[in-house]
TrEMBL record:
Pfam families: Bac_luciferase (PF00296)
NCBIfam families, A to Z: oxido_grp_1
Residues annotated as transmembrane: none
GO CC annotations, alphabetized: cytosol
Name of the featured protein: LLM class flavin-dependent oxidoreductase
Family: To bacterial alkanal monooxygenase alpha and beta chains.
Domain Luciferase-like, residue spans: 1-294
GO molecular function, one term: oxidoreductase activity, acting on paired donors, with incorporation or reduction of molecular oxygen
Alphabetical list of SUPFAM superfamilies matching this protein: Bacterial luciferase-like
InterPro entries hit by this protein: Bact_Lucif_Oxidored, CmoO-like, Luciferase-like_dom, Luciferase-like_sf
The organism's taxonomic lineage, starting at the top: Bacteria, Bacillati, Bacillota, Bacilli, Bacillales
Organism the protein comes from: Salinicoccus cyprini
């Protein structure tokens, strides 16, 4: 089973953004050592609790401290940017790191309305131009645009992925002949149906074939009880965000002490149902069951914890359980 990592460089209580980014680098090294296929960095804006605002910059740091694992964006929010500049950035990474680079693209705002306005004029108008933007990006990355080349031209072109959480994104990826990553952890849609639709509607481009990744939220620990304790930090953090907060990831102790309303408890239970939380055997069984149902080619795992060590161990336990 192919496994990959999606990381948002979350900032925990008592941690600086620099320390959060360094912890993410160490996580990428863990993935490198334990056979993970990719490490993707997310793009978020105006969130003090998430340090990954510029994946293309961050990935240079990650690539320089790893040797095998693929590195990519999860995702570059394309409506904010000119495709030519995106192609230049990732061609630069591919020139430095060879056949290890992915360009994951998305069209979500990734932050507040104020952040969107500060980043770019006319974000919504650019969202409507997404098909044109993708065609431009493909032309620059594959060096088929006759007008201008996106130097430096690498020996191996980056792979382009479409990321999404809906049937619309799957249909778009299929129409454009792109690789597709479905964010199940952010969606209420049936992932099996969406991935089936993508494969059925896929229009090959050159010698391409459909390939799917499913993004899932997982917390794994030596025992089931420990896993639920560790997961509580992220769950309570999400509850706090729903009340307008933007604080750091709370410690397990602070999360346990947080007073939940009746509505909060319903929300927390709903979030837990979208996650996989357990010991290595339980997590491995759950991932195998999802793969059997969805036939996904790969899992992209997102894990947010208070402790960077707990996070690294979670990924270690998963890899070890599935490779036994």
């Amino acid at each position: 089973m192919k496994l990959s990592i999606l990381d948002q460089a979350p900032v925990a209580e008592g941690q600086t953004p620099k320390e959060a980014l360094e912890a993410s680098m160490k996580l990428a090294q863990t993935g490198d050592a334990y056979g993970y296929t990719r490490f993707w960095a997310a793009e978020h804006h105006a969130w003090s609790s998430l340090a990954s605002s510029s994946p293309e910059v961050f990935l240079g740091y990650i690539g320089a401290h790893t040797s095998r694992i693929r590195i990519g964006s999860g995702a570059v929010l394309l409506p904010y940017y000119k495709p030519y500049k995106v192609a230049e950035n990732f061609n630069m990474l591919a020139t430095l790191f060879g056949d290890r680079v992915d360009i994951g693209i998305g069209r979500a705002p990734g932050g507040s309305a104020e952040a969107s306005e500060a980043l770019s004029d006319g974000f919504l108008q650019q969202v409507f131009r997404m098909p044109e933007l993708v065609d431009e990006l493909v032309g620059y990355v594959e060096n088929t645009d006759a007008r201008v080349a996106a130097h430096p031209l690498p020996l191996y072109s980056p792979e382009i992925w479409m990321l999404g959480t809906s049937r619309k994104s799957a249909a778009f990826a299929a129409e454009k002949g792109l690789l597709y990553c479905f964010g199940q952890f952010m969606s209420d849609e049936d992932g099996a149906e969406i991935l089936d639709a993508y494969r059925e509607q896929y229009i090959p481009r050159q010698d391409s074939r459909p390939y799917t990744i499913m993004g899932v939220s997982v917390v794994c620990a030596r025992t089931t009880e420990a896993a639920h304790d560790i997961a509580l930090s992220w769950l309570i953090w999400q509850v706090q965000q729903s009340h307008g907060g933007d604080g750091a990831i709370p410690s397990i102790e602070a999360a346990k002490a947080y007073e939940l309303t009746a509505e909060d408890k319903k929300k927390l239970q709903s979030m837990k149902e979208k996650m996989i939380i357990g010991n290595p055997e339980e997590v491995a069984d759950a991932l195998r069951a999802i793969q059997n149902r969805t036939d996904t080619d790969e899992f992209m795992i997102i894990t947010i914890t208070f402790s960077p060590e707990d996070k690294r161990k979670s990924y270690q336990y998963i890899a070890q359980a599935l490779n036994e």
